[in-house]
């Protein structure tokens, strides 16, 4: 699935999806929100899986934490992926625990030592899940202990761990405002061959120079523009619309997803006329 | 500072900003976002997991528990839906002037509801055929949770002050029936000590049949003759099988 648009699957509209089976390229779920939820959840997921591809986006791997890697969780996720026949497992290049879980995403210090440490843990995860780990560039509001640029850090982890990248264009936008850098240069600097998946979402403005990645608002035009640029730079990759708060009715979300689809169509026809070879992804 | 120390300092501040230094050279409004995100997220899970306890607790005290939970509890579960269980563990060992046995029992009871709702009953377990009661080997459904309470946690009134403590605990079983299509279909039963023992025997040694259970229960019930015990046991097994509290293997 190269050209494809997905939507984050929410319990809020799950029954509507089951009843109406809207045209969506794929649905994304957080394994941590389905694994411990009993028989009913598994039945629902089976029904969805019969009709749609699924991707996953984990929450609690805490790949950058000083707490030990929770291999039991990784094994449980591997079983879950196999059980529902899911190929793509993505997570955050972040940490969410320290002396126990904190259930929120914290910024890994951008240092060489941290990149080495994370890469080692990524390799271990990939061994267990027998799939590539797809890591997302996260949004961050502060960078404690920063010794290198974010882009250098991300590239170092990807290279050393030989893993894939989930390019979240909203996070690039949020970070570019919060840390005053050029989002286009950032995207252009990412390694094309590692990008296999994308996220797009809305954010909220706390101050003109401080945005918060809430996934609670509509996608801004500047962020759609960034996605278009990312496709031009790196080719089209399957892209997911995230929405976690103030969730609108399903048709509204599907409209936003269609916007992404139009961008994909536009880029694709442009690529065809330019007769550039197309890249295979996933 | 190496990256681990940087992380440790940041985490310590996030958990307890009153008593730990903030990371240096970082704008306080940026740090505040992290503190707010972590705190609000945990607080919202606890609010939805313990509606009765929260409604009975003053806002200040509730916030103090949430903050103490963040600062002193090392949550082991990676699942957000387990935050409530982590909170119950925290309450069991945390000392706070407003935190007594009633609060702990109420929290445990509210959590049992969630546990029963989300328990996974494996496909190999099914409802028993009642015609073969005597030959079945019994298993307690994983969607069954048993506890005992000195306070009447199952029958609290919203505006009632702390209820009176009983002299003896009441056994309470919370369960979700098999094949229940709706997840909000969790029920409770108040058990006699005998019935509670039966459940515990089967949880310790799953797969026992009626005769094996009879042998174990006989010394506990010297006042009952064999026929009374058999009839009593059959009655309980039938009832529990109908409710799918007890299941059998395929």
What's the helix and strand layout?
The complex is a heterodimer of chains A (282) and B (250).
Chain A: E1 5-8, H1 14-20, E2 26-29, H2 31-34, H3 38-51, E3 54-57, H4 71-83, E4 89-92, E5 95-97, E6 101-106, H5 112-129, E7 133-136, H6 150-161, E8 164-168, H7 169-178, H8 183-188, E9 195-200, E10 204-207, E11 210-212, H9 221-234, E12 239-241, H10 250-273
Parallel strand pairs in A: 1-2, 1-12, 2-3, 3-4, 4-7, 7-8, 8-9, 9-12
Antiparallel strand pairs in A: 5-6, 10-11
Chain B: H1 3-15, H2 28-49, H3 51-55, H4 59-72, H5 83-93, H6 101-118, E1 125-126, E2 137-140, E3 144-149, E4 170-176, E5 186-191, H7 193-204, E6 208-209, H8 210-217, H9 226-242, E7 246-249
How many β-strand runs of chain A?
A: 12
- Beta-strand residue fraction of chain A: 15-25%
Biggest sheet character of chain B: 4 strands, antiparallel
Approximate helicity band of chain A:
40-55%
Strands in their spatial order, largest beta sheet of chain B = 1-7-2-6
Distance between the termini of chain A: 7 Å
How would you briefly describe this protein structure?
Chain A has 282 residues and is α/β, with parallel strands linked by helices.
Describe the protein's architecture and organization.
- The complex is a heterodimer of chains A (282) and B (250).
- By secondary structure, chain A is an alpha/beta fold.
- Chain A contains ten helices and twelve strands.
- In chain A, the strands form three sheets. An eight-stranded parallel β-barrel of chain A has the order 1-2-3-4-7-8-9-12, surrounded by four helices. A two-stranded antiparallel ribbon of chain A has the order 5-6.
- In chain A, a hairpin with a 2-residue loop joins strand 10 and strand 11.
- In chain A, helix 9 packs parallel to helix 10 (250-273).
- The longest helix of chain A is centred in the C-terminal third of the chain and has 24 residues, at 250-273.
- Chains A and B meet through helix 3, strand 6 and helix 5 of A and helix 1 and helix 2 of B.
